[in-house]
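Q: I have 680 residues here and want to know how they pack in 3D. Can you give me a structure?
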Amino acid sequence: MRLWRIDTTAQTMVLGSDGGMACCHYWGAPLPGDTDLDALVAAAAGGITGGMLDALPPLSLVPEARCSFPGQPGLVAFQNGLPLEPDLPLDIADQGDALTLRHVAPGLRLDITIRAMDHGLIGLRARLSSDAAVTLHHLALALPVPAHLSDLTELAGRWTREFQPVTTALDHGARLRDARTGRSGHEHPPHLWLTAPGTTNTGGEAVALHYGWSGGHRMLVEALPDGRRQIQLGHCSGSERAPGTVFETAEIWLARGDGGLNSVAVPFQRTIRDALPPARRPRPVHYNGWEAIYFRHDATELAQIAERAAALGAERFVLDDGWFGRRDDDSSSLGDWTIDPRKHPQGFKPLIDKLRALNMRFGLWFEPEMINEDSDLYRAHPDWVLGPADQIRGRSQLHLNMARDDVRDHLFDRIGGILGAWDIDYVKWDHNRLTPFPDAAQTRGVYALFDRLRAAHPQVEFESCASGGGRIDAGILTRCGRVWLSDSNDAIERLRIQHHAAMLLPACVTGSHVGPRECHTSGRVLPMALRAWTAAQRHMGFEMDPRELTTAEARTLTRVTTWWKANRDWMMAGDIWRLDRPAGSLAEMQLAADGSRMVVFAAQIDAPVALQPPLLRLTGLDPQARYRLTMLEHPVGHHSSSIALSRGAVTLNGAALMAQGVALPPAFPQTIAVIEGTRL
């Protein structure tokens, strides 16, 4: 048997082939360089007993139905109406910067590439090519799941409640999720992790997997009858709608660690941060006017709002939906990317001049992939719509066929014309309607348009929004430097969403805004301190009518914004470490890249069970170093006596702060404590 290994700082993968399709024989903790790989593989080989075939069908990197594999195959395809079940023996193995395994059959070739990545990750992808046209149902790469990693956690959600973890035990049968909405999705974004029982944020073994594709994925975790387990990731089934000769998966990213969920989350944060396109430094405080004015665009009102936002600390003004065509509600004008002369008779000049005087930059909203029937574009090109004429509408809109060259050329000309004519340095790119059917060609078309616009307008930064967090993945994040995590500006919901999203996303890419006093998506009224400090945990912004603020609210928001500006450089380049807290509370620590400083946000969401909150234990610190902690924001609560942090600075070594921690004051629900720390 031929064997190869891939090593990173955090994991080792051993692959092998006896002449057939390559298999992953080991995926786990780093192995010494002198490990006998033949002995390793032999030691793990199972036996044959009653009720089994005379040989164990291989769990290969692309499991083969032709080998009597008892689980879901990795390739389902058809040629001339017949199932395509080729014998794909190994032809070439080349291990340079990456391991490339080439498998060939008459008229077919399957290339699998596995590489060691920075920050301890491993990346895998596959490419199938054929001499004759093939109809592909799905192509997925498979890996064995160690038996002791028995808990599967997926991310689920919906509009305004994204990134909610759901944990199930892997025992019998298959867990299949097929994202068929045309985007990575609110419902099940392509990120998951497997853990040993009892794993927490700070302790236990975990692996995490991410599929870097924006058009919908297929995830399968299956417990086979013979006791083995597999996990598969690939494009959504049936999304390659046209026969073709070349098909590629996106890259799968794998992380592994022994230090709890943080040991797989932090490497993903760093990898995403490295992959982002260039962005303006320092990261500007956002103002988005959507929840202040909606479709109501009035020059005088916009100037008043800009003045007030600037006084609060905003540095970029984003004009949202309603500036184009005859867009007075969501029923018309999508596709007509021309400035509405009724609302902006001089174009954007008065607003841009005002913003320049306030030292603010200008950003603009688009929804390029969509069209309304009440639009000049639809009347001219009804054939550009994706899907049947009688399909269900979404937000009164249809989806453009982004696979068409003429559609992308038109959008490039219209959007590029706006970006070239005005001093715009930011685009909020929205996506508010699901595709009528899964279609990978749509995603490739979106990527092509993004890449073309970015090349033509390198000064423009792009944000990915899809009804909030409906399209967040590594594929879109190589093109967008910021994501809109949720359309909910409810600070309670935001705390949960962004806390769980930190399993993948760094702070610098995650937009978080201070919303209106009465939240427009929940009706909840929350104190300004909680709203402001929640936004300050990520890329901070405002999204409300700033004229509604009381003097006290404005004072609090200005104080927090000033703090964020003073600390944003190291925060946006640092790591988010989730802390272990009781149910009804959340806490995380953000640590500078060099470990020199930190900030801890500890939110009490619900009424606590215990009268005294448990000690706050930190993580990720140097055990030998000494740290000075000070309380920056005291939570509201019954305080008949004071704790050490309330009386002044606390200085302890890292070992004590991680093993014991420090006391927090008893706090009311919907309050937050903020603690700064400096390494001495």
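Q: Anything worth noting?
A: The chain has three domains: 2-275, 286-574, 579-679. Residues 579-679 form a domain with the Immunoglobulin-like fold (CATH 2.60.40.1180).
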